[in-house]
Design goal:
This protein has a single domain, classed as Alpha-Beta Plaits, CATH 3.30.70.100. By secondary structure, it is an alpha+beta fold. 17% of the residues are buried. Helix 4 runs antiparallel to helix 6. Strand 3 and strand 4 form a beta hairpin. It is 33% helix and 21% strand. It contains 6 helices and 5 strands; from the N terminus they run H-H-E-H-E-H-E-E-H-H-E. It has a 5-stranded antiparallel beta sheet.
């Protein structure tokens, strides 16, 4: 489920009230997608995918998910953030994967990590970590040349 920026507030209210199971299939779009003709013409810079592997203290999964639903507002509206999605492991329910699409690594580092928003984000969800998250950035591999 992708959400347009103009519907973000109403969608966030629905998103925040959903069950944890719904978090696994939903995403919050930080801004409307580019017109299809620009994407297909290759005129837009490709995005960067931030992947954060987060291990939560077993038994605190529901509390972590609730903290995430509150803290995600710190990411919404950050310049360069395209979408946000949190998933939870099926085989390992205490393992979560955060997927955030950014315009660039610099957008993530400068517009979020270097701001007070990141401090508030980490203060909300960090107490549930069983160890430091493993975070990396990825780019798409084209299916054809």
């Amino acid at each position: 489920m992708a959400l347009a920026a103009c519907d973000l507030l109403a969608s966030y209210v629905r998103f925040a009230g959903c069950a944890l199971k719904d978090l696994r299939i939903g995403a919050i779009r930080c801004r409307p997608p580019a017109p299809r003709d620009l994407r297909s013409a290759g005129k837009l810079r490709s995005m960067v995918l931030e992947v954060a592997l987060i291990d939560v203290t077993p038994g605190q999964e529901a509390e972590f998910a609730a903290a995430y639903r509150t803290a995600v507002t710190e990411l919404i509206g950050v310049e360069g953030c395209r979408s946000i999605r949190m998933t939870q492991g099926i085989e390992t329910p205490s393992r979560f994967v955060l997927l955030v699409e950014w315009d660039s690594v610099e957008a993530h580092e400068q517009n979020f990590r270097a701001t007070d928003r990141f401090g508030r984000w980490r203060a909300a969800i960090g107490p549930f970590f069983s160890g430091p998250p493993h975070v990396e950035h990825f780019t798409d591999v084209p299916a054809s040349e």
